[in-house]
Design brief:
Helix content of chain A: 40-55%
CATH class of chain B: Alpha Beta
Largest sheet of chain A: 6 strands, mixed
CATH topology of the largest domain in chain A: Rossmann fold
Distance between the termini of chain A: 49 Å
Order of helices and strands of chain A: EEHHEHEHEHEHHEHEHHEHEHEEHEHHEH
Number of helices of chain A: 16
Largest interface: A-B, 36 and 40 residues
Largest sheet of chain B: 9 strands, parallel
Helix content of chain B: 40-55%
Strand content of chain B: 5-15%
Number of domains of chain A: 2
CATH superfamily of chain B: Aldolase class I
Radius of gyration of chain B: 17 Å
Number of strands of chain B: 9
Distance between the termini of chain B: 31 Å
Oligomer: heterodimer
Shape of chain A: globular
CATH architecture of the largest domain in chain A: 3-Layer(aba) Sandwich
CATH topology of chain B: TIM Barrel
Order of helices and strands of chain B: HEHEHHEHHEHEEHEHEHEHH
CATH architecture of chain B: Alpha-Beta Barrel
Strand content of chain A: 15-25%
Number of strands of chain A: 14
Radius of gyration of chain A: 19 Å
Number of helices of chain B: 12
């Protein structure tokens, strides 16, 4: 079984490029060139250098001793929270800004939900001196004021998405409309492993540095490259894609994707796409998607703004469908408690997105000798308000 | 030969109007179609509303949101249109995004279109290669013309591919933009219109996006066979309701 993208841009039955003709020249140009550009020695050199000196990679692989004792298994944390800008998102934006430069683009657009990808994009645009416009749902702008301020300080223009539900999906629609209106000078930096081919593959490759490092880091610590399990939370699925990538074809590695169940999978307020979604088309790709029977895209819910996307990347849809990955849905309450446990036991306050991944330690039983690597995709600073309200701190 | 082919053979410039089904009110669909034909419109695109219309500007987005709120669904639209061929004879095209069609079932959707007397489909996010590989046979089985878009950025090579794959007309997007977002045509459009005219394509071209009045209609159809008006008509309906449709059409054709 192949879990990577095929020549036509598909992962099994998922993927493709369902885009209006207005976007075809840009997406096709990217498709023809992305692998070649990524393989150029000068590109690799610049990318690696920036990841090292600017982002602070490699991010540590940390053996969580107290967490391991509590759950009676060997838990390692991949510390993406220690990256510059506080999350894994910057791995992709560094890659894509270098890609944009080589494609001759001068103007960058992006969508953002919680603001993490927006901040990571604004950051690399500041670094490269490029114009940056970030689309963000009007509701998210109100919810995530500190990140809006960060983007502004970094020189980006934050444009509110006023259509539809005024959250991430609508910010994505607005970014796509901007690209239609500005086809010549603009590159669209998509933040997740979604969108038309080649975006899911390109974003996955830029994020795959996570699993690449896990391999050699684990070799140093455990004497073997492959853990028994890799675990990541999943919204659109960029941190999960990067965490899983180099283990997809390693049969002995169990892959666990943790979705946001919100207030419960059957509550009507959830973002558990693998359970609630059906094959459909969103933002240019065919994937599992939360929608009405009539094919209208519905609004997901999660306490974590980074996980409330109504679809899931096509690679993940394929991993789910083939059974290669185990999908577990975690509620708001379970995630919040897990965030508190990690804070108290290890002195690390995680982003609420990442807290979802840790919540499975309560319910999913591992053997004492199992090596479980959990991707700690982001830090919790941006979520303090939510933690304060939830725990009445 | 279906109604689209016949209409395109006529020795005149084609005026085509787009509207969103279910807007302003859920049950305005049939009246709007009848009034447009009565007032001399040559062809109609009936918009099947979608929650996430990424190629559309604010006007059509808002009408789609309202139409969905009003209760419009694929099944409701088919029900409204079931007797439309008893009163209307101009070409009717359904225009929308691919996901609702996929969820209805592509073959069921096409069969229903044929039963009703729909002549063609415009699905902007169903790209050429997907269509040819998976759906062309089904569309043809039910006698449906599939209409592709081209834009000023589309390469000559791809325009020739699209021309070869088309059997009806080519929807010529006037500029790099979403729907309803410009006021007039400038030199860029003139050059683009001329470039396409010089290509001597086998399919006639109908220009859409940015046509809002008699002046832009004239400009767009100087070379092309016809033009499509969408957002401007929706705005008219928002301001005037559905009782003065004749005034709008006369304003274009004056």
């Amino acid at each position: 079984m192949n879990y990577n993208v095929d020549e036509k841009g598909y992962y099994g039955e998922f993927g493709g490029a369902f885009i209006p003709e207005m976007l075809y020249p840009n997406v096709e140009n990217l498709r023809q060139q992305y692998l070649e550009i990524m393989a150029e020695p000068s590109f690799k050199k610049e990318f690696d250098q920036l990841l090292k000196d600017y982002v602070g990679r490699p991010s540590p692989l940390y053996f969580a001793k107290r967490l391991s004792e509590k759950y009676n298994t060997k838990v390692y944390l991949k510390r993406e929270d220690l990256n510059h800008t506080g999350a894994h998102k910057v791995n992709n934006t560094i890659g894509q800004i270098l890609m944009a430069k080589r494609l001759g683009k001068t103007r960058i657009i992006a969508e953002t939900g919680a603001g993490q990808h927006g901040v990571a994009t604004a950051t690399v645009c500041a670094l490269m001196g490029m114009e940056c416009i970030v689309y963000m749902g009007e509701i998210d702008i109100a919810r995530q004021a500190p990140n809006v301020a960060r983007m502004k300080m970094l020189g980006a223009e934050v444009r509110p998405a006023l259509s539809g539900s005024r959250t991430l999906k609508d910010a994505t629609n607005e970014a796509i409309r901007d690209w239609i209106n500005n086809p010549v000078d603009t590159h669209y930096i998509i933040g997740s492993a979604i969108g038309p081919h080649p975006y899911p593959d390109m974003v996955t490759r830029f994020q795959s540095i996570i699993s690449e490092e896990i391999k050699w880091q684990l070799k140093e610590k455990e004497g073997k490259e492959n853990p028994d399990y890799v675990v990541a939370c999943i919204g659109g699925g960029s941190n999960a894609a990067g965490t899983f990538y180099h283990f997809l074809h390693e049969k002995e590695v169990g892959i666990i994707a943790v979705e946001a169940a919100g207030k419960g999978v059957d509550s009507g307020e959830s973002a558990a796409t693998s359970v609630l979604g059906k094959m459909g088309i969103i933002h240019g790709c065919k994937t599992l998607l939360m929608q009405t029977v009539d094919g209208q895209i519905t609004e997901p819910y999660s306490i974590s703004a980074g996980l409330d996307y109504p679809g899931v990347g096509p690679m993940h849809a394929h991993l789910y469908k083939t059974g290669r990955a185990e999908f577990i849905a975690v509620t708001d309450d379970e995630a919040m408690q897990a965030g508190m446990v990690l804070s108290k036991l290890e002195g690390i306050i995680p982003a609420i997105e990442s807290s979802h991944a840790f919540a499975i330690l309560e319910t999913r039983k591992f053997k004492p000798e199992d090596v479980v690597v959990i991707n700690l995709s982001g830090r919790g600073d941006k979520d303090l308000d939510t933690y304060i309200k939830y725990f009445k701190l | 030969m279906n109604r689209i082919h016949q209409k395109l053979q006529a020795d005149k410039k084609i005026l085509s109007i787009y509207f969103t089904a279910g807007y302003p009110s859920l049950n305005d669909t049939v009246k709007i179609i009848q009034d447009l034909e009565k007032n001399g419109v040559d062809m109609i695109e009936i918009g099947l509303p979608f929650s996430d219309p990424l190629a559309d500007g604010p006007t059509i987005q808002a009408s789609s949101t309202m139409a969905l709120k009003n209760g419009m669904t694929t099944a409701v639209l088919f029900q409204q249109l079931k007797d439309i061929r008893k009163s209307v004879s101009i070409p009717l095209i359904l225009m929308g995004y691919f996901n609702p069609v996929l969820q209805y079932g592509v073959e069921d959707f096409c069969r229903k279109c044929q039963e009703i007397g729909i002549d063609g489909l415009i699905l902007p996010d169903l790209p050429l290669d997907e269509y040819q590989e998976n759906y062309e046979a089904i569309f043809k089985k039910y006698g449906l013309v599939n209409v592709f878009l081209i834009t000023p950025q589309t390469s000559d090579e791809r325009i020739h591919q699209i021309d070869a794959a088309s059997d009806g007309f080519i929807y010529m997007v006037s500029s790099a933009s979403v729907t309803g977002s410009q006021d007039g045509f400038g030199n860029n459009q003139e050059t683009y219109f001329q470039r396409i005219a010089n290509m001597k394509l086998k399919n006639p071209q109908v220009v859409g996006f940015g046509i809002s009045n008699s002046e832009t209609f004239q400009q767009a159809t100087k070379q092309a066979k016809g033009a499509i008006i969408g957002s401007a008509f929706i705005k008219f309906l928002t301001q005037n309701g559905v009782d003065k449709i004749g005034d709008f059409v006369k304003g274009i054709r004056k």
